[in-house]
Write a structure and sequence with these properties.
This protein is of the alpha+beta class. It has three helices and three strands, in the order βαααββ. It has a three-stranded antiparallel sheet. α1 crosses α3.
């Protein structure tokens, strides 16, 4: 319970907007975010479809690039595929995304 002498609660202002992904270029930001979401905390599901082949310093980056191409191909091959993103309208950064 907040007492009368307590400071007001912290309010974060982040203008968010839900948008449909309409260009392949949006996957440049979406796919690395997808990878991050599966890595922290670790969830092994993504590596079933997007394995990291090799262990050199560029292996992860190459796997992300290859998976981006793969996700775009899957998106175009399925007429019912829709991707949505949540964007911070002040920074135009993607905060979240999903395929539906």
């Amino acid at each position: 319970m907040i007492g009368t002498n307590s400071p007001p609660p912290l309010l974060l202002k982040m203008p968010l907007e839900l948008r449909e992904v309409t260009t392949d270029a949006r996957f440049d930001e979406i796919i690395p975010l997808l990878w991050l979401s599966y890595e922290t905390p670790f969830n092994g599901f993504l590596i079933l479809f997007c394995p990291v082949l090799g262990d050199g310093p560029g292996a992860r980056a190459e796997a992300i690039q290859q998976s981006k191409v793969r996700f775009i191909q899957w998106h175009h091959a399925d007429p019912s595929s829709r991707w949505l993103e949540v964007v911070d309208t002040e920074t135009e950064k993607v905060c979240s995304c999903t395929a539906i």
